[in-house]
Amino acid sequence: MDYVGEIKQGNKLVFEEVYYRYHERFYFYVLKNTRSEDIAEEVVQMSFIKIWEKRTDLSNSFPIEVQIARVARSIMIDILRKKASERKALETIKENANTVIAGDTAAGKELIIKVSEAIETLPPECRKIFILSREEGLTYTEIANQLSISPKTVENQISKALKAVRKAVALAYILSF
């Protein structure tokens, strides 16, 4: 069957068949590479959504599974880069906090106050998600289940919170000199 041609023409039944045929295969591919069920599910969902949204751009030169694999790999790399960036930002925040606190107790207290103020100025839902993640140590999926929202929403809210905290830390760090 010409899956690519049928999907390009908008055949939802063929797309659904392709989804059920390849979903598990790509899920386990991503799971093997990331060791994260959340990321694996997210990547697979986003991959099939992107394939459907960009169906007119699919190439007749490659089988559908090759094109899905390319999209999944690209999305997986993007997500891993974003997570690495978030981890690096948190490490920087911790290092700066430790440097300031070790060097000057007053500056350290000021930094803690600035971070607390930044967290308090977050929108209520964003603040709640950030606290559940960073202070209570819950995973994105656990937070999503607890608050009845998607893991992607959790990820987006934590990203917003980290930006606000980074700004507060940078400001406190600059002002400490």
Can you walk through the features of this model?
This protein has 177 residues and is mainly α. The protein folds into two domains: 3-79, Rna Polymerase Sigma Factor, Chain: A; 104-175, Arc Repressor Mutant, subunit A. Helix content is 82%, strand content 0%. It is built from eight helices and no strands. Helix 2 packs across helix 4 (64-103), helix 5 packs antiparallel against helix 8 and helix 7 crosses helix 8 (151-175). The longest helix is centred in the middle third of the chain and has 40 residues, at 64-103. It is elongated. The termini are far apart. The model has no long low-confidence stretch (mean pLDDT 83).
Summarize the entry for a quick read:
The chain is an all-alpha fold and 177 residues long. The chain has helices spanning 3-8, 12-34, 37-53, 64-103, 105-120, 124-134, 140-147, 151-175.
From N to C, what is the helix and strand string? HHHHHHHH
What oligomeric assembly is this protein in? single chain
The gyration radius over C-alpha positions equals: 21 Å
Helical amount:
over 70%
CATH topology of the largest domain: Rna Polymerase Sigma Factor, Chain: A
For the terminal residues, how far apart are their CA atoms? Answer: 68 Å
Poorly predicted regions are: none
Average per-residue pLDDT, rounded, comes to 83
Give descriptors for this structure.
177 residues, mainly alpha, Rna Polymerase Sigma Factor, Chain: A, Arc Repressor Mutant, subunit A, 8 helices, 82% helix, 0% strand, elongated
